[in-house]
């Protein structure tokens, strides 16, 4: 499982986004390390389908799909208290669960 936090240099939410991602993953029982990847050019933004900093990715899937064009920019997320620089932990946990493969049902003979 590849877990990546994509950020731009100087993003004010980068540090707390890493802590948020680690916490949400831990609450979901995932202990894999998160790679932090800096996006510094428009070419990189397009290559990684990057829609702003911070972006949370699991196995190459942006956990919060966006119709915005890839760009080296900050990102905002809708939260219960309005737009914010990162999602709420419950929203992030739901997004993680949405892209994880469903557990196999117990086989019973």
Give an overview of the whole structure.
By secondary structure, this protein is of the alpha+beta class. It has one domain: 3-Layer(aba) Sandwich (Glutaredoxin). Helix content is 28%, strand content 20%. The protein has three helices and six strands; from the N terminus they run βαβαββββα. The protein has helices at residues 14-27, 42-47, 89-99; strands at 3-7, 34-38, 55-58, 61-62, 77-79, 82-84. The strands form two sheets. It has a four-stranded mixed sheet, covered by helices on one side. β1 (3-7), α1 (14-27) and β2 (34-38) form a beta-alpha-beta unit. α1 (14-27) packs across α3 (89-99). The chain is globular, with a radius of gyration of 15 Å.
> What is the number of E strands?
6
Which spans of ≥5 residues are poorly predicted at pLDDT below 50? none
| Helicity range | 25-40%
Mind telling me which CATH architecture this is? 3-Layer(aba) Sandwich
Structural class: alpha+beta
CATH top level label: Alpha Beta
Largest sheet: 4 strands, mixed
CATH topology: Glutaredoxin
Instruction: Identify the strand order in the major beta sheet.
Output: 2-1-3-4
Q: Tell me the domain tally.
A: 1
Q: DSSP helix count? A: 3
Mean pLDDT: 91
Broad shape = globular
